[in-house]
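Consider the tokenized backbone below.
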């Protein structure tokens, strides 16, 4: 059983810097609900997501990012390419800005 310190360090963190949301840690099923609450509170006026400090992403994390991108207006610039993102973006037919491809 993982200890609390390991779980806390793996959790997703979200902070706003100007018009960018910076994500860090793991964007995985276990952490997206908390990340969703924190990101939604800061979403107004966001035009970029910084994923350079994300250490892994799963399908729940990609769904989180895609929905946040849609709510932010759809033309969100993405910085960083954490493990899993490219494969999942391809599998779900998402554009580089995480919009659904036509």
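A designed sequence for it:
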């Amino acid at each position: 059983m993982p200890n609390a310190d390991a779980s806390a360090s793996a959790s997703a963190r979200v902070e706003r810097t100007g018009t960018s949301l910076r994500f860090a840690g793991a964007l995985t099923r276990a952490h997206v609900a908390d990340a969703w609450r924190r990101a939604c509170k800061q979403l107004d006026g966001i035009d970029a997501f910084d994923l350079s400090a994300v250490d892994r992403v799963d399908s729940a994390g990609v769904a989180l990012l895609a929905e946040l991108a849609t709510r932010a207006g759809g033309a969100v610039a993405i910085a960083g390419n954490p493990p899993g993102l490219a494969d999942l973006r391809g599998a779900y037919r998402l554009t580089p800005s995480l919009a659904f491809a036509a």
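The two ends are 43 Å apart (CA to CA).
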